[in-house]
Every structure is written in C-alpha cells, then in structure tokens.
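Exam revision sheet. Question 4 asks you to relate a sequence to its structure. Input first:
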Amino acid sequence: MKKVLGIVLLFVLVIGLASCGSTGEFDVDSESEIVVGLEAAYAPFNWATPDQNDFTVELDGQSGMYVDGFDVVMASQIAEELGLTLVVKAIEWDGLIPALLSGEIDLIIAGMSPTAERAQTVSFTDEYYRSEQVIVVNTSGNYADATSLTDFSGARIVAQLGTLQDDLIDQIANVNHLEALNDYPTLTTALTNQAADGFVAELPVAQGVVQSNPTQFTYISFTEGNGFSVSDEDVAVAVALRQEDVALLALINAILADISTETRNGYMEAALSRQPQA
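Answer key, structure tokens:
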C-alpha cells in the first residue's frame, strides 16, 4: 500500500511549454514506479558497477550494470516510503535537468546543489546532505601543503562542467582556470597526467578520490576565511523535481525529515567504504 503521509493533493498544474513532456502533477496513487536520474559517475554519491549487492539498483537500459552510492540509498528509501518501484537512469550531468523537464525522469538525486539559477526551472526539496568545497591535488605536487586559496595563485585548476565547483575557481587570485571537463574520472585523469594542478570537489567526492589513490592524491580543506566563499545553497545537496509536482515535493520533504543527520552520515561513510578502489 502506498504511503501518502497524510498530504492532501491541493491542485494540479499543467505545463504548456513545448519543451516539456510532462502534462500534469505526478500522482503517487496512480503511478507504480518513480524514475530517478543521476550520472552514475560521481562516487561516493553514485557510481556504476557490474557487481550487485544489497544497495545496488539495476541501471535502466543497461543489462548487467548496476548503480550504487549514497544517492542510490537515499533514492531507494524515498521510493520505498512512497510505495513505488525505483527505476534509475544514468544521464550525463548537463542532460539531467532537460531529462527532468521533458518527463524522461521524475527526480534528480545526483548530489545537485539547489542554486538560485537552477531553481528558476526546477523545484528542490529540503537538503539531504551538506558538505564543503575542497581542492584535490597530487601528493608530490607544488600545492600539497597549501592552506589557503592564495597559495593556489598561478595554479592550473579545473572542475566539472556545469557545476558550482567550476564557478568557484574564479575566487582564486591569478588562477589558471582550465576548461571544465565532463566528469570526475576525467578530472582525476587530468590530475594524474599533470594536465592540471588540482580540481575543486565536494568533500565526500574528494575523500573518495583520495581513498582510492592514497599515495597519489590528497585534498586541501580550508579553515574559515581561507577557503571559498559559498552561500548556504552551495554546501547543500537536494532532490530536484518539476515545479508542478507540488504534492510530491511535500511527500519527499516529509520522508527526509524522518532521516536523521546521523543516519545520513552513516549512509555516506558506508558508501565511501563500498566505492570502487583504483
């Protein structure tokens, strides 16, 4: 039986935009599944794997491939509480919001920050994780002992395309802001090949990279006043959904409210321990 958490459906919105494939509000009672989009290349939040375990979900359209990670655990809990079957699709980062607006997916659970720019086209739930922004560097490089952004003057710094992290690079004085790359495996390769001196990442992602390559990489975490200037939305991640899905937003917020910070941190620690090792 579906869990509706006592939320009353207030109204139905119809989107008339030609670019949007959705025709009305997501109705939990009439649906049997909920489709979540993520990259499947953003460990420890999400990653693809051929190995099945108690946490994995099969990737839609990719026979024999599964997805694991913190986002997957959160998505599974949300789907279970809604009484729906979870379907997960792997979509490149820049394609996630278009896929949501077109109706290809119902939710984005992909470590996405609820920025004001994104909120112009999609809605966001309350945060489901909070992190900080750091810089991953080579342990033998010139920046391994850095303690502040000023230490990165002249450094070649890169980040993922279309992300907050790419925007933050310009806060470094005299930085050599490299062209953004598509995903974190590519960023890691750029650092390995010394094509970049560092890349900006969320702390859990940086921890995962370092855990997989402890002798090669480290990350620089900054004390207050020495690091990036970020807003509250910059350190939070939230579930994105279509703006017309008002009732679904309320349902997911109610589910998230019942998951304690300690439980979420435990999910993240477990994801870090399961992520692929280089």
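Marking note for examiners. Helices lie at 70-82, 96-102, 164-168, 184-192, 203-212, 246-257, 261-274.
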